[in-house]
Specification:
The complex is a heterotrimer. Chain A has 7 helices and 7 strands. By secondary structure, chain A is α/β, with parallel strands linked by helices. A 5-stranded parallel β-sheet of chain A has the order 2-1-3-5-7, with helices on both faces. The radius of gyration of chain A is 17 Å and the shape is globular. Chain B is of the alpha/beta class. In chain B, strands 2-1-3-4-5 form a 5-stranded mixed β-sheet, with helices on one face. A 5-stranded mixed β-sheet of chain B has the order 11-10-14-12-13. A 4-stranded parallel β-sheet of chain B has the order 8-7-6-9, with helices on both faces. In chain B, a hairpin with a 4-residue loop joins β3 and β4. Chain B is globular and about 100 Å long. Helix content of chain C is about 25%, strand content about 15%. Chain C is built from 6 helices and 10 strands, in the order ββαβββααββαββαβα. In chain C, the strands form 3 sheets. In chain C, strands 2-1-5-3-4 form a 5-stranded mixed β-sheet, covered by helices on one side. The relative contact order of chain C is 0.14. The chains are: A alpha/beta, B alpha/beta, C alpha+beta. At the B-C interface, α18, α19 and α20 of B face β4 and α2 of C. Chain A: This is Oxidoreductase. Chain A: Keywords: Oxidoreductase. Chain A: InterPro entries: Hydrogenase_assoc-protein, NADH_UbQ_OxRdtase-like_20kDa, NiFe_Hase_small_N_sf. Chain A: It holds the Pfam family Oxidored_q6.
């Protein structure tokens, strides 16, 4: 049997979920025997999301155009997509800007109203991705196959989620150890 | 006062009345079209022409044909004038002696009038609502006298039970049973409440009854109080009905003056006083437990039932709460007997029902029809159908009701038939929609209403109405998928089954009924394929 | 005192008359989720989480305000009830701004616990991100309306146990919110005795003690019941 093709994606989040993933420590070695990590901000240098991915862990909320494109691409090329951590599941902290309203209001607040010097709205088309008007959790944009809340999900939770999947079984996302938010 | 004295007041009034009475509507609708100006000019012309000895101009309540107001009617000559302006007034008076009036002449034999059967509205538009003598002149307050002197409280309740009358506020609960329950509850202090917090968009039946015939409602309440053993009553009217409030105040004052309200009514040991409470504009206060809290001075929030108000109502005392139209039916039932009333209508829905016929229809206004009449008869014959088009749907029951498609117009109007087809009688709003109407937008309109009017106490109603509104907006913006429709249906089911009070329990009805009968309209608004979405995977697909 | 016999989830029970279904279930070791219920204050049946099905009754009834009756056949955990409960919790999360990660009550929050209990791993309803206020005008306490679920426990505890009636509910629908005084800054409301009972009563991190930061908030929920017991039954120790 070919190795399982695993990807991890980092959208609008703090990378804490990925750090927690690295907290899996020696299990990562076991994991490496079972999977090929084909795309990941922490374990690969590939820039384009590859085809035929088996499992993808998506960290972060959908906050800008780049997030949106990458997520849609990832969904199209992935069999089983996991919403990974509270930002992906609820929009969490990145989503808190939604209370201010549209992207423009948020940018004005940050870069004009709260700035002391060099007041200037960032605008570099093609370099700095444009903010979306509303930060959204992953499942509001694409279909999600499994939700793994947590801020971040602990290494144990990640293990208990991913390990059965590698055997082709669904983990039971139930109870405090598996689905507590925060 | 005894019966002879009461009749004497009536007799004196009838003698004083002139043979030709020119009725000019002074209800809110016609007033908005300057019927008071018309009335003034009618009076002036009468005076100028010195016709005062045989012609009398009377400000009366609603005649029903509100869409063509201001209305002027001369019953003695079987004449009806529509859309009368103050300038028409002189010619109308002149026409009494022959000649033609400049105002458009209506047809008093039109099905709109001819098909009606008037019990609640029997004297609406015929008497001056601001004079108790006119009400007494047509036999008013004799039923109250009869109840107090000829019937025991339990016999009074028996008549109401026999009549088969059901709550006209929309619930359709048997009125006699409700009265009997309150009557049998232990406790010295009991209350009667009249729910006049009519709030459904498109409904104005109760306003019209209160403005046109306030004494009929007071009499109904007094009979109820006698039957259940209450000595205090409240009328809870919404502040948006200033004219109704004014006329009720006048009516209460007049009735008190004659000893018809107050202590030892008709020289009996029965005391009953009525106070008015004015609602501050919350739709939810039409829900009985919220209304009671509001009367008590609290925030108008519903509370779980049981206990029902009949057990534990105002100030925790047994309380009878009925709607305006229910009370307005009572005097006739006592006068003619319950068996007479039970002879009208269908097997399970007795008597008549007042409807406010509005929307895309030729003849707008108020009608009172016997139960069992079909929607088609109301809409097509009486209402005259849709101007330049066809009926698409009829909405009954307001935000709690549903949309009935044209294909079901032959459904008889009664409590159970309407519920069976996913709508409800409600308080009597009937909005006709033509083929250009978007049913999804209609559903969203009612949801917007509920979203704004939910009290916020229970979560399903407070948050569910907002979510449903957002989903409907998403559908109208062509951003929704089939999944959203499924989710909308699940949400409707949950809000309906888990909400605390009737507002939440029925809020999904307009959505559910349009999804049931106009599903195609929803489906055509969906976007073709979900952007970037691929079907969900399975765990097995990972290793395969 | 008399006793009635009834069935909860198929188990035969003998329960004192006048007991609510919620208390009867507790006695039988059956847990029914609640949010607006708090021992020591009156029940309002508002959150609808404790709804149960009773055979022969056509609507679901809130167990916190429904008394047991002879022969009742009650179901507390049907699939339908569980689905409704999950939807209710999802709607609560999507209605306010509940960011567990940065909340004082993280790990000590009844809403968070409810999400676990009803198996909510995500909300199927879009988050609404309403704009809500925070009032920190009181010297000791603060209220963050973003986290308020409108259970009105603060309203009742202040009115019924402390007798101050500082709290109430204002406005309708989505705009409904708890207010202090007549919607004045909490710190300016003279009626407030700063007793802190509202802090103990709040199920989420909405009403908090100033100075506590993420996940530091703990509460003594039973204190309120203890106070009531002490007053009414003269039980001064616990």
């Amino acid at each position: 049997m070919d190795k399982i093709r695993l990807a991890t994606v980092w959208l609008g989040g703090c990378s804490g979920c990925h750090m927690s993933f690295l907290d899996l420590d020696e299990w990562l070695i076991e994991l490496a025997e079972k999977v090929d990590i084909v795309f990941s901000p922490v374990a690969s240098d590939i820039k384009e999301y590859p085809e035929n991915v088996d499992v993808c862990l998506v960290e972060g909320a959908v906050a800008n155009e780049e997030n949106m494109e990458l997520l849609i691409e990832a969904r199209k090329r992935t069999k089983f997509l996991i919403s990974f951590g509270d930002c992906a599941v609820t929009a969490n902290v990145p989503g808190m800007r939604n209370m201010l309203g549209k992207a423009e209001t948020v940018l004005k607040r940050c870069y004009l109203e709260l700035s002391d010097e060099t007041r200037q709205l960032p605008h570099f088309p093609g370099i700095v991705p444009e903010l979306l008007d509303r930060v959204r959790p992953v499942h509001e944009v694409v279909d999600v196959d499994l939700f793994m809340p947590g801020c971040p999900p602990s290494a144990q939770r990640i293990l208990a989620t991913v390990e059965p999947l590698l055997r082709g079984e669904l983990p039971e996302m139930k109870g405090r150890p598996m689905i507590k938010f925060g | 006062m005894d019966l002879a004295e009461l009749r004497e007041i009536g007799e004196k009034e009838r003698t004083a009345q002139k043979p030709i009475r020119v009725h000019c509507c002074t209800s809110t609708g016609c007033q908005a079209a300057n019927s008071l100006g018309v009335k003034k000019n009618l009076e002036n012309t009468c005076k100028e022409k010195k016709m005062g000895d045989r012609v009398q101009v009377v400000g009366v309540g609603c005649m029903g044909f509100c869409g063509r107001g201001p209305l002027v009617q001369i019953e003695a000559q079987n004449k009806l004038y529509e859309e009368v302006t103050p300038d028409d007034a002189a010619s109308i008076i002149e026409a009494i002696a022959g000649g033609t009036a400049s105002a458009a002449e209506g047809d008093p034999e039109h099905p709109f009038f001819a098909r009606q059967m008037r019990i609640v509205r029997e004297t609406s538009g015929k008497i001056d609502p601001e004079r108790i003598e006119e009400y007494i002149a047509v036999g008013g307050y004799e039923p109250l006298y009869k109840a107090i002197h000829d019937l025991t409280p339990s016999e009074t309740i028996d008549e109401v039970s026999k009549s088969g009358l059901r709550g006209r506020g929309g619930g359709g609960y048997p009125t006699g049973l409700k009265w009997a329950t309150v009557a049998k509850m232990p406790g010295q202090q009991k209350y009667v409440i009249c729910n006049a917090d009519e709030g459904d968009p498109g409904a104005f039946m109760d306003r019209s009854v209160l403005e046109s015939d306030p004494h009929r409602v007071l009499e109904g309440m007094a009979i109820a109080a006698y039957a259940i053993g209450a000595s205090e009553g409240y009328i809870y009217v919404r502040a948006e009905y200033p004219l109704a409030i004014e006329r009720l105040q006048k009516a209460i004052k007049q009735a008190k003056k004659y000893g018809i309200l107050g202590s030892q009514i008709f020289d009996s040991p029965f005391d009953f006083k009525i106070e008015i409470r004015i609602g501050a504009g919350a739709f939810v206060c039409g829900e009985e437990t919220a209304l009671i809290q509001s009367i008590e001075g609290g925030r108008g929030n519903p509370r779980p039932r049981p206990p029902y108000p009949a057990q534990e109502g105002l100030w925790k005392s047994p309380t009878l709460i009925n709607n305006v139209e229910t009370f307005a039916n009572i005097p006739a039932i006592i006068r003619e007997g319950g068996a007479w009333y039970a002879g009208i209508g269908t097997e399970k829905s007795k008597g008549t029902k007042v409807f406010a016929l509005t929307g895309q229809i030729r003849n707008n206004g108020l009608i009172e029809v016997p139960m069992g009449i079909t929607l088609r008869e109301i809409v097509e014959e009486m209402g005259g159908g849709v101007p330049n088009g066809k009926v698409k749907a009829v909405q009954t029951g307001g935000p709690s009701g549903g949309c009935i498609p044209a294909s079901l117009l032959d459904t008889p109007v009664d409590y159970d038939s309407l519920v069976k087809i996913g709508s409800m009688m409600g308080s009597g709003g009937m909005v006709v929609m033509d083929e250009k109407t978007s049913m999804v937008e209609v559903a969203r309109f009612y949801m917007e209403f509920c979203r704004g009017e939910t009290c916020g106490k229970c979560i399903p109603c407070r948050a569910g109405t907002v979510q449903m509104y957002q989903m409907l907006t998403k559908i109208l913006n062509r951003e929704a998928t089939l999944q959203d429709i499924v989710k909308l249906e699940q949400l409707c089911d949950m809000v309906k089954n888990t909400s605390l009070c009737g507002l939440g329990m029925t809020a999904p009805n307009p959505v559910m009924s349009t999804l049931r009968y106009f599903r195609e309209e929803y489906l055509t608004l969906l976007k073709d394929s979900p952007n970037g979405k691929v079907p969900a995977g399975t765990a097995a697909s990972i290793t395969s | 005192m008399s006793v009635v016999t009834l069935k909860i989830n198929g188990v035969d029970l003998a329960i004192e008359e006048g007991t609510t279904i919620l208390d009867a279930s507790k006695e039988a070791g059956i847990r029914i989720p609640t949010l607006c219920h708090l021992n020591g204050i009156t029940d309002v049946g508002a959150c609808r989480l404790c709804l149960v099905e009773i055979a022969g009754v056509n609507k679901m009834l809130p167990s916190c305000v429904t008394q047991v009756a002879e022969g009742m056949d009650i179901t507390t955990d049907s699939d339908r009830l569980q689905e409704y409960r999950r939807m209710i919790v999802e709607m609560l999360f999507s209605e306010g701004n509940h960011v567990c990660a940065v909340c004082v009550a993280n790990e000590n929050c009844e809403l968070q616990d409810l999400a676990i209990e009803v198996g909510m791993d995500h909300s199927r309803f879009p988050y609404r991100f309403p704009e809500r206020e925070i009032d920190i005008s009181h010297p000791q306490f603060g209220i963050d309306h973003n986290r308020c679920v409108l259970c009105t426990r603060c309203v009742r505890v202040c009115d019924e146990i402390e007798g101050a009636h500082v709290w109430d509910v204002a406005f309708r629908g989505a705009a409904a919110k708890v207010v202090t005084g007549l919607n004045q800054p909490w710190g300016t409301v003279d009626a407030c005795t700063s007793c802190g009972k509202c802090v103990e009563a709040c199920p989420t991190g909405s009403i908090f003690r100033k100075g506590s930061t993420v996940a530091e908030m703990t509460r003594d929920r039973n204190k309120l019941e203890f106070i009531v017991n002490a007053r009414e039954n003269k039980q001064w120790t616990r």
